[in-house]
Amino acid sequence: MKALRDPDRLLTQGLAQIREEFSVPAGFPPEVTEAATAAVARAGAPPPGEYTDRTARPFVTLDPAGAVDLDQAFCIEAAGADWLLHYAIADIGAFVRDGDVIDREAWARGETTYLPDGKASLYPPVLSEGAASLLPDGDRRAVVLTVRVDPAGAVQLDTVERAVIRSRAKLAYETVRDTDLPDGFAPLAARLAAAEQARGAARVDPPEQQVESNGRGGFALAFRPALPAEQRNAALSLAANMAVARAMMDARTGLFRTMPEPDARAQERLRATAPALHIDWPAGQSLDQIEATLDPAKPPHAAFMMAIRRAAPGAGYKPFDPAEPPWHAAVAAPYAHATAPLRRLADRFVLEAVLAIAGGRPMPPGIEEAFTRLPAVMSRAAARDGRIEREVINLAETAMMANLEGCRFHATVTDVRGDKASLHLRDLPVISTMLAPEVFPGDDVEVILTHADPVHRTLTFTPA
Q: Which of 65, 259, 266, 461 can pair with 434 through a Cys bridge, CB separation 3.0 to 4.6 Å?
């Protein structure tokens, strides 16, 4: 973590510029806000025939401390040798009608856009941070997935229902204690992690470079590794999404999250990179096997994890195609997105599909057509938000180093493409590049910062 001193308000002005460059909406058009408010009033009490009362179940949420758009709540139940994961997901579909003004605005946005000084939500706050969010302040509508996890960690969707739930607690990754969590949370997460390893899943989670608000009007730049509770919670979400994907595949319909494996050429480059980072990768060992040995707390390992992530083709969305079964290489299984409908447009339609499948009903009108449109919409939103995230980090790096031109820094070369080297500074959470035709991945180098430009968000380094 590195605090950012910003006496000239470079970050504040730069964030405003990024919002303008990428047309990040500052709020919602009045007609969308009015429609959302009316939808809350119109919803009233959940119809008894449509929603099962599950308020007796001890659901809790687990999210970043400041989050109020809470998509998921869970409780866990032992069932002989199996575990039952009751996974409640915010029922935004109870408030949004296909083709209404709220729906049209959501299609234009695709997903929630996050910046350090705020976010541009997918849905108006009266929904995403209020009536639809699974806050612990009263009854909430949800789609409850009951996922059975057997002793080997295999998952199966037992039931799907619309239900009324009541969250008992809003737990935070940063402060949660094991005693706060439902019984079975740790052993269930361990079972799922063991199954993931047995499948040969190749999820790579290097520490994330982030710009964060410090809560006092300032910002900090950090490499933030995932916290243990966060990793375990992600395993529950993964299990639910895998169970949803399997149910849709069996029904020969749906929208899937897909990602191919790094091709042979990419893996050859990774094998050349490993020795430079002092990582022993035996000839007979597969990529997923070496990934299982990596420790993100070790800088060379973190650098190699980032190289693996860059080598993998990008993930995307794909409707069901019997000629090309869906596959997600990082998960090593068919996979879908269903558990974050307040933040991702696609999840709302996947939930409606799986509700129909589980209930033995025909697919609701418009769902199949939505599955054909969503891949392009979600891809465009993800690309936009990826560029925004990178520009925010570039801004923070240049603001932090604006007065350090001429200084020397120790760095590790993490990648080389042509005569351009990727650098990871040792003493600051900064990743950059420089022209250096005679370096190799893993080299320790000394560099000079020759120019820092917060306006254009660029750093220029040269070999010392």
A: 461
